[in-house]
Amino acid sequence: MSLLDMVREAGVIGAGGAGFPTHAKLTSKSEYILLNGAECEPLLRVDQQLMELFPDEIIKGFEAAGRYIGAGKAILGVKGKHKRVIGILKERIAALGLGDYVEVGELPDIYPAGDEQVLVYELTGRTVPEAGIPIQVGCVVINSETALNIYNAMQGKPVTEKYITLAGDIPNRITVKVPVGTPIIDVLKLSGLENFDGYAVIDGGPMMGPVMSSTDGYITKKNKGFVILKKNHHLIRKKSVTPEQARRINRASCEQCRMCTDMCPRYLIGHDMQPHKMMRALAYKLDSVEGQKTAMLCCQCNLCELFSCPAGLYPRNANMYFKEKLVQQNIRYKPEKTEFTARKSREHRLIPSKRLIARLGLYAFDKPAPMSSVEMKPGLVCIATRQHVGAPAVSTVTAGDHVQAGQLIGRIPEGSLGATIHSSISGTVVESGNDYIAIRRD
Asked: DSSP code of 416?
């Protein structure tokens, strides 16, 4: 069985972003394979710990993927501040005899170093075209946990567990491994809190993660962490503003200072992403579709809303408003250029992580979240059929079936982009629908 087949059968997807099926990335031929170990979202601690705890497995999985796609060079992207992790990786690369192929590329401690287009620029000096993807400049990007899952797939082990950081205003900041499908509330209680009435939970990092409307969901392969803050924290209040409220505020207050544009990471690598123009179009009800198309270049990093704007407005909301309108009209952005050069001002406008954390009001919570040995054994798991980019998995089991941990329970629809899903516990299927498969532990 080829590596691509092993990865597809194991249900490996991007473990820290949108959840793009990894086997689809392995169909490309590339000059570089890059490991995204930046973990640039404040407070999250998964990737840096995995690289310290499982360096050999991550390096081997990463190398195998690189060899398979024909990459001439494999670069592990890690922030330079993680000196211990970098030392371990370099030592193990040498011990494994891979020094001529795999190397560590040190990243600046900035946000968003983990944006894959910023990562490509930092590690290779190449700029991904507007509305493009890394393969267009000869790069394939996977993250640390995905590389670990590739290694596990090579050993015949499917993705049934997920590493999660619990951070924020909580007694117990930890990183844990939990079965996919575990009730989110059970994971949140590992924070040391029992009552969440006075708290709000951000699903993911504090920059890009949304405030959860409910804690009734279940862990998926894409979850990376939860940031728990009191409801009166200004970051929660800011993120809880509705799109309609944000647009009213934008129309009334934007002074066109263009700070949102001047500090936009995509603008700085040479793209035409200019949020201040979307704010202008919103304020003056400009209806030029051509002038709105650049909204589709927004990577939703949220720097414009949570750091750059001196008036505390919502430029990302303006981008999303026009982007959604264009999608509804089936209008796409088409780049006019084929080559892009980073703007000369870029080096002076990078956002240090520590400064961002202070601006977010998270300085007091920027502490270690060590890997815990706590073993979670949920009595019931609900495994989503769509926890990845593409079509939902098609159930291969029915209510009443008995399944073993690691057993295939959902396949990729014929001719579609998707990912397989597997049971994370041994037990009996109690429900098998289009949205999820519920399994009760033996």
From this structure: S
In DSSP notation, 267-290 reads HHTT----HHHHHHHHHTT---HH
Phi, psi of 166 (to 5 degrees): -110, 120
One-letter amino acid for residue 351 of the chain? I
- Integer Cα distance of 267 and 277 in angstroms: 13
Q: Fold for domain 379-442?
A: OB fold (Dihydrolipoamide Acetyltransferase, E2P) (2.40.50)
Residues carrying CATH 3.10.20.600, the chain: 160-233+361-377
Domain spanning 160-233+361-377, CATH class? alpha beta
Separation CA 398–CA 254 (nearest Å) = 55
Q: Does the predicted TM-score (pTM) go above 0.90?
A: yes
* DSSP sequence for 369-409: -PBP------SEEEEES--SSSSPPEE---TT-EE-TT-EE
Short-list 20, 17, 106, 92, CA closest to 62: 92
Round to whole Å and give the CA distance between 17 and 226: 14
* 364 backbone dihedrals φ, ψ, rounded to 5°: -70, -15
Q: What is the pLDDT along the chain (442 residues), one digit of tens a residue?
A: 999 999 999 999 999 788 999 999 999 999 999 999 999 999 999 999 999 999 999 999 999 999 999 999 999 999 999 999 999 999 999 999 999 999 999 999 999 999 999 999 999 999 999 999 999 999 999 999 999 999 999 999 999 999 999 999 999 999 999 999 999 999 999 999 999 999 999 999 999 999 999 999 999 999 999 999 999 999 999 999 999 999 999 999 999 999 999 999 999 999 999 999 999 999 999 888 888 999 999 999 999 999 999 999 999 999 999 999 999 999 999 998 889 999 999 999 999 999 999 999 999 999 999 999 999 999 999 999 999 999 999 999 999 999 999 999 999 999 999 999 999 999 999 999 999 999 999 9
Domain 3-154 falls under CATH 3.40.50.790:
no
